[in-house]
Amino acid sequence: MSTDPGTSTGTAGRSTGRIDFTLMYVTHDAFRRDLARLRRAAAEGRTDSVGVRLGWANFKQQLHVHHTAEDEALWPRVEAACVGRPDAAEILAAEILAAMAAEHARLDPLLEAVDAALEQRSADLADHADLAGRADLAGPADLAGLVGDLQAALGGHMKHEEDAALPLIQEVLSPDDWAAFGKTIARKQKLSGAAAYVPWVVDGADEAQQAAFFHAMPAPVKVLNRLFWGPRHRRRHPWV
């Protein structure tokens, strides 16, 4: 399956072992889809549209919740579980966790650069309304290039997390530990956040991904999404 930062890597068949990583994988895939959408919008000169701005704002919120929950409730738990392991294993775990922290930190200036370019484009369009739709009005730097830099950094981080950190988590944590991390995300999201997260994460997912996602969620979530959250999400036309 493809692991390009701009494409979905697929979910079915990847959640094996004691801990079910379905929600992690489908969330990562949603981030990949959103950045591919933003890059297309930048290339086509559509980033000033309300739908694209709504999509970008939600992407940033979902990424913030996801990474702050990891920093606060997942990596410290993994670090504590690795204390006292054989020297080589403890050193390797420390290297993986240090890399996760460093990769998170590198994303902040990339997000800020995209924000700044989007704001510059909006200012340019305010001064030159007759040029709306022009892709070359991208601000002080190439907006599509900045989004590509963010794609590469976030895509590389998620691939590293999937290849190195998740196997470590599977080895040292229990399903109860993983559930505690999930509860931290739920507390951060609250019900209003869940109403945004659920339709976002399945927007553009294939049938296998959607089935895996809803199988991992409490049963009422699928009903709430079908009746309320999904229709509201679609009415907002994110990324259009």
Would you spell out the secondary-structure blueprint of this structure?
Blueprint: H1 22-43, H2 50-82, H3 87-127, H4 143-172, H5 175-202, H6 207-216, H7 219-235
Question: Would you mind describing this structure in some detail?
Answer:
The chain is an all-alpha fold. It has one domain. The protein has helices at 22-43, 50-82, 87-127, 143-172, 175-202, 207-216, 219-235.
The gist of it:
The protein is mainly alpha-helical.
By oligomeric state, this entry counts as single chain
Helix and strand element order: HHHHHHH
The N- to C-terminal Cα distance equals 27 Å
Strands, count: 0
Total number of distinct structural domains: 1
Number of alpha- plus pi-helical segments: 7
Helix content: over 70%
What is the 3D shape?
globular
Chain-averaged pLDDT: 88
Cα-atom Rg, whole angstroms? 19 Å
Please mark out the parts with pLDDT under 50 across 5 or more consecutive residues, or reply none: 1-10
Provide key terms for this protein.
disordered N terminus; 240 residues
